[in-house]
Amino acid sequence: MIQHSQAAWTLLLVTGLIVAAQAAAFKLFFWDTPLKNGTGFFLGIEVPPGFYQGAGARWLGRYRALILSVNVILALALIAILISGRWLLLPLWAGGVAVLHTAALLGFGAYARAKLGASPPVESRVAISLESRRLRDYFSLPGEAVMAAIIVASWLLLLLRGDARVDWFAPAVMTYTVMGLFFLAIGAVRIGLPPLPADRPEEHQRWVEESRRYGVRWMTAFQWVVVAVLASYALLHGWPLVAATPWAIWLLVGIILAIWLGQVLTTFIGGRRLTAMGRGLRPPGSWSTPFRQAKGTPRGWMVFFWAWFAGLAALIVYSVR
Question: Which segment, 6-10, 49-53, 187-191, is predicted with the most confidence on average?
C-alpha cells in the first residue's frame, strides 16, 4: 500500500469514492445543518422570529465559512499526500474527514450555545423517563468481540511477520481511533435522557432515543471501516502471498468499499430519518426546566471527546514528521 503498485492505485480509487461522497454530503448533510429543526432554531438553539433576516444570517455565514474551511483543509491535505507520494497516509486522511467534521460541528455548536443559548426558555412542566438502558440494547456484543479479535490478530501478524516497510504509526492511529470511538459510544449510551417537554413527551423520547441509536450506529460503522483498513494493512505487510496476489488485493478493496458504503448509507439514510422524526419537536438543550437546562450532550462526554481528538491530532502530526 506504500508503493505505487496495483494496491496503491486501488487505494487511490477508494479515496476518490470518499471524495465523491463527501462532495454529496457537503450540500445534502452539512450545508443546512443549522436549519434542520426549522427556522425557529439554529443548531438546536431556539431563536426569535425573524432571526435569519438579521443576526441569524451572520451566524449562518460563520457556520458555512467553517464548513468550507474544513473542506479546504482536507482538500489541501489530500493534494499534499498525493504530491508527496506518501499514499500510505490516505487511510488516515479518510478517517480525518469524519473526525474533523465532527469536531468542527461540536466546537461550533458549543460556541453558538454559549452565545445564543445562554438563557433558554423555561418550561414549567416536564416529563421524566424512568426506563433503564442496557449496552446490549445498542451494541452487538458478538460484533464488538469480532472487531476486537480482528484488531488483536492484525497486531500479532504485524509484530510477528511484518515486513521492513511497516509504518507503525498507521496501525497505532487506526487502533487509537477505534478504541476512542468505542468509549465515546458507551458514553453516549450511559448518558441519562434529558427532561422531556410535557407536550408530546412520547414523541420527544422516541426522537431522543433514535438520536442516540443513530450516533452509536454511525460510530460503529466508522469503526468497521477503520478495522477493515487495519486488517488489510496487516495482511499486505505480514503475509507476502496476499501482496503478490492481485485478486486478493481486489478482494480486500471490495470488502473495504462494501463496509464504507454501509457507513455512507448509515449517515445519509439515518440522518434524513432523524430529521423527519424531529420536525415540530423541541431539540434537547433549546429549553430549561425550573431546575436545570435540558442538555443533550453532558460536559463530561464533551471533555472526553476533545481529549481523544487532541490525542488523535497529536498522533497524526507526529506520524507525518
Answer: 49-53
Q: Give the up-direction half-sphere exposure of residue 240: CA atoms within 13 A in the CB hemisphere.
A: 3
Dihedral through CA 148, CA 149, CA 151, CA 156, nearest 10? 140
Kindly state the DSSP code that residue 135 receives in the 8-state scheme.
G
Q: Which long-range contacts (CB under 8 A, 24 or more apart) does 313-319 make?
A: 315/169, 315/172, 315/173, 315/176, 316/92, 316/96, 316/173, 318/169, 319/89, 319/92, 319/167, 319/169, 319/170, 319/172, 319/173
pTM: 0.75
Query: Nearest Cα to 194, choosing from 268, 301, 34, 273?
Result: 301
Q: Which of 135-144, 148-157, 219-228 has the lowest mean pLDDT?
A: 135-144
Per the structure block, which three cell numbers stand in for 127? 416529563
Determine the pLDDT at residue 216.
86
- Angle between the 201-238 and 90-116 helix axes, to the nearest 10 degrees? 160
Q: Which cell is 269 given?
A: 439514510
What is the chain's mean pLDDT, rounded?
79
**Among 93-97, 235-239, 253-257, 302-306, which is the least confidently predicted range?**
93-97
- Going by C-alpha positions, the residue among 147, 174, 140, 143 that lies closest to residue 158 is 174
Long-range pairs, 281-284, Cβ under 8 A, ≥24: 281/37, 281/200, 281/203, 281/204, 281/207, 282/46, 282/197, 282/204, 283/37, 283/41, 283/44, 283/45, 284/44, 284/194, 284/208
Amino acid letter for position 69: S
Rounded to whole angstroms, how far apart are CA atoms 273 and 267? 10
H-type alpha helices, the chain: 6-25, 55-84, 90-116, 141-161, 169-190, 201-238, 240-243, 246-277, 299-319
